[in-house]
Amino acid sequence: MLEEIRIRGLGVIDDAALDLAAGLTVVSGETGAGKTMIVQGLGLLAGGRADYGLVRPGVERAFVEGRLVIPVDSAVAKRVRDVGGDLDDDPGGAVLVVGRTLTSEGRSRAQVAGRSVPASLLAEIVEDLIAVHGQSEAQRLLRPSTQRAALDRFAGAAVAEPLARYAVVYAELHRAARALAEVTERSRERAQEAELLRIGLAEVERVEPAPGEDVALDAELTKLEHAETLVRSARTAHAALLSDPASGSDDPGAVDLVSAARRVIAGDADLDADLAALGARLTEVGMLLADVAADLASYAESIDADPERLADAQNRKAALTGLTRAHGTDIDGVLAWADQAGRRLLELDGAGESAETLTARRDELTAELVRLAVTVSEARSAAAARFGEAVAAELAGLAMPRARVEAAVAQRDDPAGLPVGDRRVAFGPAGVDDVELRLIPHPGAPARPVQKGASGGELSRVMLAIEVVLAADDAGSTMVFDEVDAGVGGRAAVEIGRRLARLARTHQVICITHLPQVAAFADRHLVVHKADDGSVTRSGVITLDDAGRVRELSRMLAGQEESTLARGHAEELLAAAAADKARP
Hints:
By secondary structure, this protein is an alpha/beta fold. Among the domains are: 1-129 and 477-583, P-loop containing nucleotide triphosphate hydrolases (Rossmann fold, 3-Layer(aba) Sandwich), CATH 3.40.50.300; 213-329. The protein contains 19 helices and 19 strands. The protein has helices at residues 35-45, 75-82, 119-126, 135-140, 144-155, 157-185, 187-207, 213-225, 227-241, 254-268, 273-302, 307-327, 331-396, 450-453, 456-470, 490-503, 516-519, 546-558, 564-582, and strands at 2-10, 13-19, 24-29, 61-70, 88-90, 93-103, 108-112, 115-117, 130-133, 404-410, 413-420, 423-425, 434-440, 448-449, 478-482, 508-512, 524-528, 536-537, 541-543. Strands 1, 2, 4, 5, 6, 7, 8 and 18 form an 8-stranded mixed beta sheet that branches. It has a 6-stranded mixed beta sheet with strand order 9-15-16-3-17-19. Strand 13 (434-440) and strand 14 form a beta hairpin. The longest helix has 66 residues, at 331-396. It is elongated.
């Protein structure tokens, strides 16, 4: 329940506070006294669009603050705590303070329980607490989405439960269809990539390189290309180490010279231990040189000077060079690429299976969505007749006794839509149905959409009738009506007051009115007066006592507070309203 609203610097309101209570509170006053600014302020608290032109000239900012009492364990209280808000204790529950600030420079700030929050979060938190029905909100009834939402609220769980599941499946279908479209769009790119990979892998498989083969082949080619030089060097070195009589040279080699030196020392080694040690070292040197000479001979014999082998090695080198140039790396890099390319090719080859899986999933979700859409549509159609009858019953009490309202449930053909029966129909997150409220003002008249068949006053009464019908669904919330009685008078005005009073049994109702017939049903009557300078201050918002209500209703009836005739009529209105409210 909204206990208090304070408004500062908004339009004609300088600084005013309204103390509110349960039941029906009406706000009246002279034209231009600021009643509409109260509705604007409540709309801002509900997260409505900020109109910076409402900031009072000469002030830097406009401020609206509301004090609400909510159940301690409610979902709203939990949401407030989740965002770090502080709730004060109250005998009736938890106190939630919300606010909205507009600056003349065009900035807006929202507050929830002492925390600065986005206006969207303020709207989310307050949407189940305050419903503002102003002139612009009445126009929302003309929107197909609003009409469908009204029917769904009336239908209750019969629509809400399958519609909730429908929304989940709809989102899943959207994701699956998007993924399938992406897979399909990229199929050509994948095919091209796979073909390039196959060509590259086929070339690697044809060459069949071995790890490090390019390095080993380079070394072999160097030996093959310089075979004669290497043999000559090895043999010359061998001859220097070890004399070979077969070569025709009698010059001793290094091995012979070392052996001769060892023999010389060996003859006198017994004379001195140091000389004996040197002789041992010469023995080791001789043996080492003999081993090197043998290795040089073997090396010379191992050199392959076969021209055919050289040609084969050069051809192999050309093949390996082709691979390394194509991939910009060495043979080890080529083999690493081939390993990665093989895995990537398996992924690409499996993409077709992914598309098949997504297609099957899409078809499965489509079938489930069709089933749920049909269930929702049937539930809406079943509720539509009851809804129309309930609204018509309320209209009968609002001086439209012969009027009827139809809630027409239909679908639109769409070649790309959902296959329902033998048709393809348009669909969205709320199902396949278009809901249109049609007004039949009297028997025999054609049913016409409310936006075409209802006058301004009739539209206000249709809206009020719908709110009364739906009232049980959101009992306990605050409902604000801005001149819902516009365009009506007489008995219709009395019936509007009666309906608002009935609505106030389960809701806190705040009504801005200019009709005394409506004001007479109030549980609390506030009147707004402007000061001499044209502003509204705290002293300008007055809660009327019984005598004050008589005077205000007299003014509203005849424009004269002290008119005896008007006062009598006002007292009669108040007595009739009190008697009506006393009935069960």
